[in-house]
Amino acid sequence: xxxxxxxxxxxxxxxxxxxTLRCSPRSGDLSVYWYQQSLDQGLQFLIQYYNGEExxxxxxxxxxxxxxxxxxxxxxxxxxxxLGDSALYFCASSLRQxxxxxxxxxxxxxxxx
Amino acid sequence: GExxxxxxxxxxxxxxxxxxIKCTYSDSASNYFPWYKQELGKRxxxxxxxxxxxxxxxxxxxxxxxNKTAKHFSLHITETQPEDSAVYFCxxxxxxxxxxxxxxxxxxxxxxxxx
Lengths: 113, 115
What we know:
Chain A is built from no helices and eleven strands. Chain A has strands at 5-7, 10-13, 19-24, 31-38, 42-50, 53-57, 64-68, 74-78, 87-94, 102-104, 108-112. In chain A, the strands form two sheets. In chain A, strands 2, 4, 5, 6, 9, 10 and 11 form a seven-stranded mixed sheet that branches. Chain A has a four-stranded antiparallel sheet with strand order 1-3-8-7, with no helix packed on it. Chain B is mainly β. Chain B contains no helices and 13 strands. The chains are: A mainly beta, B mainly beta. The interface between A and B is medium-sized, with 28 and 25 residues.
């Protein structure tokens, strides 16, 4: 157990809908990273937050957005869902500001039907 | 941006043999290279990592080597066991603004260890 929690574990929804994925980092971690894992694209970085501020953006679609709250938990919002958005969504957090290691949560499996 | 290539995509070995997985990266500013093991349907788990100021690091049966000049790094697993069977991902990242940046992953290597 990495100490990073994610909810929900599974999510099944229809095309066009909107969902919110939640991540709680390890206690004391300031950075949260979101990754998408699909069969054809592998593990891809979406977005990073550091102490409440957006730090970096990867291949994140405009239909997707995220935020990190004052208690450091983060939410990833996916809207106007398409079949191709079906994937595993992981968040990861860094132990301390000066640390390198990222520890992953258990992921949320999103199925869009 | 950074690009990480990983080879081979699949690797099958006999129990007790060694396994080697290789990765190359494109951005010379990358300074941190972790390896993750992922079992089916589970989270990627950090198994070993190396920073750019180190050439080799060992942890029991696993080791990682880094060649900064050639921009490649490798994972070595000795005395493989069936429980080593999983998908292994290499990654690269760089540090900036006082915090570590995002990971750029290779496509993964599916390792099968046959008893």
